[in-house]
Queue: 2 jobs
Job 1
Amino acid sequence: MRIFFVCHRVPFPPNRGDKIATYNKIRHLARQHEVHVLCLADGADDLTNVAGLRGEVASVTAVAVSPLRSRLRALRALPGGAPLSVAMLAEPALHAAIRRRFTDLAPDLIFVYSSNVAQFAEPFPRTRRIMHFSDLDSLKWRAYAQRAVLPMRWLYALEGRRLLEYERHVARTFSRSLVCTEAEAEDFRALIPDAPVDVVRNGVDVAYFRPAGAVRQPASLVFTGVMNYRPNVDAVRWFCSAILPLVRRDVPAATLTICGSRPNGAVRRLGRLAGVTVTGAVADVRPYLDRAEVFVAPLRIARGIQNKVLEAMAMGLPVVTTQAVWRASAIPAGDGIVAADTAEAFAAQVVRLLRDPSHRAAMAHRARLAVESGHSWDAQLTALDRVIAAVAAAPQCDPSKDQYRRGGPA
């Protein structure tokens, strides 16, 4: 089958959540199908990553997003009805490139990862199309609004409403929708009850992420992620202000390493706190995971399964996280992962792991076993193969049934 795979960043290297997911899906699909990647690039630097992907697929077409034009498109969309995050990514050069490639290659299937780039598949309603919602982003914007102050609270709430209508439109007109967790599927069915949805979970490369035997640094905690991403920023700020002082009250030697690229000003300032280190971008997160005793994931906004959590568990790290992240993992509580939503309860779980070496070792062992047994990429992506086979065998949906109208590109 000839597949167009559309995504919002160059899916290489697999060093952040969306790139990890897209890269592994593309690599899996390319074993059986002719895959052509069509994507935006996160600035000119991201274009240099195309070379690392070319050997995996039939072709790669990438167009850099212009930050200035992106902001102007969002401003123009504000008085209308288009979601701003969709308008921001409406790069005309990629629209034109996909039309040209479609004329030349006539794909059997268009696979889209992330709803804000579904616009690039919309001109082809007679072609089978699968929409993989990396998140239901409308719910994420709603969560942003709940934690923001005016005027951003109003703007985020507006974007949440607009994006939900767009997500409904996409789900109703594409052949099939995918989400990453059962919890997201429940949200999807509640918000979009008249569209089919399947679950294709994220996985982890258990051969790449495995303990290397480094000496664990006593009382060391670690968090990984792209550190200008709002949910990650909120997580580490909450941890450092509300949880870490409670941990250090009971374990004075406790330290936190915040390991990830693009730390914004708020994150860099956390590095001034006692016991906190902010690394910035690193070539490889595995040594930082291998040296730590506990992984903390105090994510209050992020939804869906967290690649960072699976990677930490694969490295033999016990994880303390929030209830929402734990539920998305589908890993039984105590199998290397525990959850708490208040600062006091979160700190208590961390302190217990730091103070009790036998408990920590048992949790670390169970963490590795949990991802080995049920979260490898190959195990997860067999579900994707089933969905593609079902879509290929089924009649197309009728896009004329959808009544959605918007002012953005189509």
Job 2
Amino acid sequence: MATMRNIEGGHQTSYRPVILSRLERALGWQPGSVAAILAGGEPDPLPPPGTPASEQPAPARRRPDRTLGDVLVERGLRRPDELLLSDQVVDPLVEELLVSDAFDDEFKNQWLSSYSMMRRQIFEATEAQKRKPRDR
């Protein structure tokens, strides 16, 4: 109840991914619909129960140029001010994960967070290596 009041009143700017996932399920929306609305779009409705996969509407197409950072912000996993250069990459692995029906939202969010941290560590190690003096 308090969460709904916060959402309706705009009292809070970010929510845990699990809260957004539950809200989308309760409203009968596809995962990612809240992010679509916040970006000025429309929610994708869930198909009625028992609808054969061949008759289910495809979810709205996502931008092919979304960066890892865009996805992290859309899913409420990071705030824009928390993003680093390592998050500003367009990565086909991210889109492949997002469109897969084999994983639930909780798994996808955990993977995205872990992947982002791994990319940050690689980026930082690479930058540190560049700053080291070279033996000649």
